[in-house]
Amino acid sequence: MAIRGIGIDLIRVDRLRLLLERWGARFEQRVFTRNEREDCSRRKDYAGCLALRFSAKEAFAKALGTGLRNPVTWQDIEVSNDSLGKPTISLSESALRFCREHNITSWHLSLTDDGDYGAAVVVLEGPSAAPGTSPEGEAEP
């Protein structure tokens, strides 16, 4: 496996709180999936939980190098936790297709927070390039 991209994002939790106060449900529904909103509603710090998910989505888009626009938008990336609490990313079918087209077959997410700030790191992986080919699998000149 080869690293296909690395993304990092840092967010101030109070910045996200201000966005929630200013834009409310309109902002939440645009940026977060229903599952993310429901999961965070069960947490003690709703805004802090959403801030980490916001940061994870930003880090994933930075690792892709596309930003959060077509073909991978806010709703195409869903952040959740597995049964042990490890953060995971699930993708929509269109985002998954985009990743496959770019030889991205797996990704890893790490989240951290200290109350005032949250941060996310995403690493994208894919098959190693064959000798004499570019990372995208095309023959080198």
TrEMBL record:
<dbReference type="GO" id="GO:0000287">
    <property type="term" value="F:magnesium ion binding"/>
</dbReference>
<keyword id="KW-0808">Transferase</keyword>
<dbReference type="GO" id="GO:0006633">
    <property type="term" value="P:fatty acid biosynthetic process"/>
</dbReference>
<feature type="domain" description="4'-phosphopantetheinyl transferase">
    <location>
        <begin position="5"/>
        <end position="121"/>
    </location>
</feature>
<keyword id="KW-0963">Cytoplasm</keyword>
<dbReference type="GO" id="GO:0005737">
    <property type="term" value="C:cytoplasm"/>
</dbReference>
<comment type="function">
    <text>Transfers the 4'-phosphopantetheine moiety from coenzyme A to a Ser of acyl-carrier-protein.</text>
</comment>
<keyword id="KW-0479">Metal-binding</keyword>
<keyword id="KW-0460">Magnesium</keyword>
<dbReference type="GO" id="GO:0008897">
    <property type="term" value="F:holo-[acyl-carrier-protein] synthase activity"/>
</dbReference>
<keyword id="KW-0275">Fatty acid biosynthesis</keyword>
<dbReference type="Pfam" id="PF01648">
    <property type="entry name" value="ACPS"/>
</dbReference>
<feature type="binding site">
    <location>
        <position position="9"/>
    </location>
    <ligand>
        <name>Mg(2+)</name>
    </ligand>
</feature>
<comment type="similarity">
    <text>Belongs to the P-Pant transferase superfamily. AcpS family.</text>
</comment>
<keyword id="KW-0276">Fatty acid metabolism</keyword>
<feature type="binding site">
    <location>
        <position position="58"/>
    </location>
    <ligand>
        <name>Mg(2+)</name>
    </ligand>
</feature>
<keyword id="KW-0444">Lipid biosynthesis</keyword>
<dbReference type="InterPro" id="IPR002582">
    <property type="entry name" value="ACPS"/>
</dbReference>
<dbReference type="InterPro" id="IPR037143">
    <property type="entry name" value="4-PPantetheinyl_Trfase_dom_sf"/>
</dbReference>
<protein>
    <recommendedName>
        <fullName>Holo-[acyl-carrier-protein] synthase</fullName>
        <ecNumber>2.7.8.7</ecNumber>
    </recommendedName>
</protein>
<dbReference type="InterPro" id="IPR008278">
    <property type="entry name" value="4-PPantetheinyl_Trfase_dom"/>
</dbReference>
<keyword id="KW-0443">Lipid metabolism</keyword>
<dbReference type="InterPro" id="IPR004568">
    <property type="entry name" value="Ppantetheine-prot_Trfase_dom"/>
</dbReference>
